[in-house]
Amino acid sequence: MGICMVIPQILLAQVEDEDSPEERMRHETNMTLDPALGRVPFERLVQEREKLRKGLQDKTIKTAISGLNWYERGPNNIGGRTRALMFDPNDATKKRVFAGGVGGGLWYNNDITSAVSSWTKIDDFWANIAVSCIAFDPSNTQIMYVGTGEGWNSSDVIQGAGLYKTTNGGTTWALLASTTGVATYANNFKNTQKIVVNSFGEVFAGTQTGVLKSTDGGATWSVSQAGTSFVSDLEIGTDGVIYAAFGRGTFSSKIYKSTDRGVSWTDISPDNNRKRVEIALAPSTSGASQIIYAMADANTSANSPAWIKKSTDAGATWTDVTNTSILGTQGWYDMILAVHPTNPNLVIAGGNVIGRTIDGGTTWTLQSYGTPHPDQHAVMFRQNGNSYNEVVIGNDGGVIYSPDYGDAADAFPSFSTRNTGYNVTQFYGISMKNVAGDGYVVGGTQDNNTLRINSAENVIGDGTNVNGGDGITSFVDQDDPTIALISAQFGGYRKMNTTTSTSTSLGISSAQFITTADYDSQNNIFYSDNTNGTSIWKVRSVNTTPVATSYTTGIPAGTSFIRVGLTQHTLFVGTGAITWPFGSGGKVYKIVNFGEAGQTTTLIGTLGTGSVSSIAVGATENELLVTLSNYGIKSVYYTNDGGANWVSKDEAAHGLPDVPIRYGIFNPLDRKQVLLATELGVWSSTDITASNPGWGVTNTGLANVSCHQLYYRSADNTVAVATHGRGIFTTKLPVCPTNVVKTGNMSGTETVLSGTYINGNTANVIQTGANTTYSAKNYVLLEPKFETQSGAIFKALIGGCN
Questions:
Q1: Residue 35 · residue 628 · CB < 8 Å
Q2: Of 33, 20, 24, 153, which Cα lies nearest the Cα of 579?
Q3: SS3 (DSSP) at 728
Q4: CA–CA separation, 371 and 349 (whole Å)
Q5: 18-27 pLDDT, tens digit each
Q6: Which of 18, 474, 530, 754 has the fewest Cβ atoms within 10 angstroms?
Q7: pTM to 2 decimals?
Q8: Cis peptide before 344, with omega less than 30 degrees from 0?
């Protein structure tokens, strides 16, 4: 009645090496953990989301830079990590499917059997769009529940905000108050691995702290008696018996069952000395003859499970069945079992690959790595009359459909993607051709390679793989749009022709799984980390025949960001923490003549403990904007004297949430304006030089999603944002208007800019509750009957655009 969960991974469709979630997790943890706590306080993101929601509602959070509207660009054909899958119980055709992306929200598809049927998103602005599981109430199928929050300690785990519920078949959803805020069990619901609902409408939720039960539709909860540790799986039999599996990491493996609707539980564990456990029930059996399959993770270095076991007597006894190398060392991260509804001998098992047995576990047939896509998280059989041959799979590539994987007689099943419109792709970095109006965007993704989108500007387009592995950062030469640099994990950069998409290796690598790099288009020199910052690659002649040389930097290990300066051979390098307690990080260095005669390295900023996530250069190399990505610290710093003095732009009264700040850029049209990519969308300031920059959210047309990079194109003032869960979006920075005459009433929060003057005339009223700023380069003229009503805020500034 429910399938759920969520997590991250890595895919390498064109690179033979398989992924390393542990490496990604280590990087992400160091970049975001609170130095004072020694952990990532995911609960703080939930709190800040709620503050943002309330702030926008009561207008205490402003919009800062006005006039920015984001347009989704795609990819329109490539999905992302999917753990939540469910057939709509109200659809008689059994074709309508709900799916949830771990960072991209809840979606539905009206015909999963059709290759052209498209997905529709439910709501981009739920308080949390990290969907982990979904289930329906069999006593009233109009009622459904969605769990949020990734519970498997993956590299970019997104914490949830509780459970959502619908009472009208999915038309509208509401967050259950009992699972969020200051509710008794709110902390339990920050990561929900699984939900099941019995025939009495009683809801059971598998959390990191045990099984919780509600008998009143989620209004209240109690702790069931199946332990208090990490629930790895929940299943409910056709007879109403509930089975709960426990285990993860250092937590011992356990399996319990309850025959009295969760009042009491019996330990039926075959082995208490393993880690994560996945279970599956044969729906065609029940009672004392219930057939159960169970699979346990051994450790992070084992390709095979610790064991695969089978019980034919509802867990009273267990026997080993044939083991198989299905996990790829990632059992803690991706593991799924599902039994055919009418054939208890046909079982599908998923790890980093997928396989099945048609003889009850005596033999297994595995698909090759990447077929259909690595890292399996959910499996469903589709009923078509009396047949269950069709199978729907959720994995790190999105949603997969097979017309025959449930057919024991078919030895060569086929698979095809079902990702049209299902844009839950997790990007890390992007770049664009510097051509006005051009739609070419290239970017690196988690699990889904480096992708190219070449649709028309502001139009959602398909993504095309141009490099295997986990794509990280990408660069398009801003002087020659035929040249691009694309990447994979551990610094595997390649030079690509954007016209033909053919590429050749630069012959470089890095000690870092997620590698920092930058490209000097003007001089055709590429810089990339080599040995965690103690040395950096310098690749000359990128436009002809690239030549790579590594040079020492004089910087301690821990480089987290590299930015090319305005002067040739100049680099700005930021450091990040390597291990906790942090012994380094939060420092900014300037290297002059890097790799040339007279190279010098100078420490120009010590900004406190944390990891530098971006460095932006302003009008000169004296003007710098630096962001740091850890919780619990000041995250934005500004200098206009080359680092002699740094000013924090993230004080308590400045308006930024306490979440990771991933990236920052200046608006070259008006360098007082700054945009930030954060864990809560894009934020901006109209004046970074002000003592209080007055940060405001800038998410119109975007989503409540983690944003990892911003990229500016000078040809037409286009900005692209790489989101980690909803693909790529673009916007245009407004061109500075002139001779602005305001005649209408002002009621909300708005900043009016002009490159010449602003005239507030007789019909211009700043109404009660408004927060209005007029900023003109030359003057602001207020005519005699211009009115600011009581309770309004009005500012007239001489600054303006440019």
A1: no
A2: 33
A3: strand
A4: 14
A5: 555 666 777 7
A6: 18
A7: 0.86
A8: no
